[in-house]
Amino acid sequence: MIRLSGVSKSYGTASGPVRVLQGVDFQVNRGESVGILGRNGAGKSTLIRIISGAETPDAGTIDRRMSVSWPLAFTGAFQTSLTGIDNLRFICRVYGVDTERHIPYVEEFSELGVYLREPVRSYSSGMQARLAFALSMVIEFDCFLIDEIVAVGDSRFQAKCHEELFVKRADRARIIVSHDPGYIRSHCDRAVVLQGGKLHAFDTLDDAYSYYTEMMA
Amino acid sequence: MNSGGDSLAAAWAIQRRVIGALLMREILTRYGRHNIGFLWLFAEPMMFTLGVAALWTAAGAHRMSNLPIVAFALTGYSLVLLWRSMPTRCISAIEPNLSLLYHRNVKIADVFFARLILEAGGTTISFVILTLVFWLGGWIKPPEDVLQVACGWFMMGWFGIGLGLTMGVLSWKSEIIEKIWHPAAYLLFPLSGAAFLVDSLPPIGQDVVLLLPMVHATEFLREGFFGSVIRAHYDLTYMAAWNAGLSVTGLLLLRSIASQVRPE
């Protein structure tokens, strides 16, 4: 279980502080898939960063009883002068996982071939995303954060990702952030809508969906 | 990976693991696997110290005192590297590592600690190797009191850690810090006691330079190295007060920015 209570966050700008989140209450239970819908700039990424622990809120509390992944397919944490394998080593060390045991899986899944032993700098963005996704699967998290990854690689690779994330790891919790209600609808048990820094919860996917489409109209 | 009810021991184990991972990442990023690889960690400070020792010998700096100039340069310049390299590496350390915060166990403090350990380790190994080489080569006599030398080294290392943390966080708050650090470090070098003995200064000069904490560790270490040949001037309590003050300041500053740092 992960529970956010009364979470608020503001950022200082040249024209004064801007409140991004305001008294947000949010809970995700084990094995649950929850979608977070919101327009661009609604604070989705801020919320994800707070849930992942990359950022701390100004007010409110977070109770984490599950291990939480970094946002899936996030490539920004790569040290691009190091090789794919060295980046894998770093992640494994940070999370206390044996590296060597996971090299075959990453080789097979990322389909990077000899490039796995080349600096990440030489990768295309698609190759980086493939490596990032493979690394995320090496650490067995209780809860995966999925931040608009819908477009990783070609359709065959997307199918592989879907298999890993939603079939093999169906027992895990997932928090999926998107402005695409169709994706949320097909992957989540329920959804919340982020609007003007406040979070609106709904009992059913349909309620969240109709609220969101009305809001966008 | 559990949170919430983490015991202190588990938290310590995680932090050690994270700092270890950052250390390896830092070594590979900085030195790579080409030519001598991570040996650069101490080859670099050794080259500095050797160069300075050679320069001072050639410049005839021995007329400044009756001490062997090689040992004088070795002790003085190694100590400069120790207090100067840690802040230099901590400045602007946050920005390029912000994205690591997505790994929940990685904290900004870990980034600093990994760099501090690396710098302290590199300069210490360099100092030890050069001392052994010079001694076995017959250029210097071994230190008279090894424990006192180690103690002086430790005091300077502690100073570097406190200064490094403080400057590292301040440089994140303001870009001016990075700009003024390099000239400041350059100007402080000749005043830090590396190139003179306090005893050789006129009394008014002694009072002034002894305001600088680095001078105390340098004098103390040299007394351990040369023994009664020199008359050292130091007050380790004064230096410890500086060190503690800087360490506490650095840690408080670190805490104060915890809610402000955020990855892209």
Automatic annotation (TrEMBL), chain A:
GO molecular function: ABC-type transporter activity; ATP binding; ATP hydrolysis activity
Lineage: Bacteria, Pseudomonadati, Pseudomonadota, Alphaproteobacteria, Sphingomonadales
PROSITE patterns cross-referenced by the UniProt entry: ABC_TRANSPORTER_1, ABC_TRANSPORTER_2
SUPFAM superfamilies: P-loop containing nucleoside triphosphate hydrolases
Keywords for this protein: ATP-binding, Nucleotide-binding, Transport
Residues of the ABC transporter domain: 2-217
Name the UniProt record assigns to this protein: ATP-binding protein
Keyword Glycoprotein: no
Naturally occurring in which organism (per UniProt): Sandarakinorhabdus cyanobacteriorum
InterPro entries recorded: AAA+_ATPase, ABC_transporter-like_ATP-bd, ABC_transporter-like_CS, ABC_transpr_TagH-like, Bact_Polysacc_Export_ATP-bd, P-loop_NTPase
Listed GO CC annotations: membrane
Family (UniProt): Belongs to the ABC transporter superfamily.
CDD domains: ABC_KpsT_Wzt
Automatic annotation (TrEMBL), chain B:
GO cellular component: ATP-binding cassette (ABC) transporter complex
Major location (coarse): membrane
GO BP terms: lipopolysaccharide transport; polysaccharide transport
Transmembrane segments: 38-59, 65-83, 116-140, 146-172, 184-204, 236-254
Cross-referenced InterPro entries: ABC2_TM, ABC_2_transport
Name of protein: Sugar ABC transporter permease
Single GO term (MF): ABC-type transporter activity
Coiled coil regions in record: none
Species in which this protein is naturally found: Sandarakinorhabdus cyanobacteriorum
Domain ABC-2 type transporter transmembrane residues, every copy: 19-226
Alphabetically ordered keywords of this record: Cell membrane, Membrane, Polysaccharide transport, Sugar transport, Transmembrane, Transmembrane helix, Transport
Protein topology in the membrane: Multi-pass membrane protein
Subcellular location: Cell membrane
Any matching Pfam family: ABC2_membrane
Family per record: Belongs to the ABC-2 integral membrane protein family.
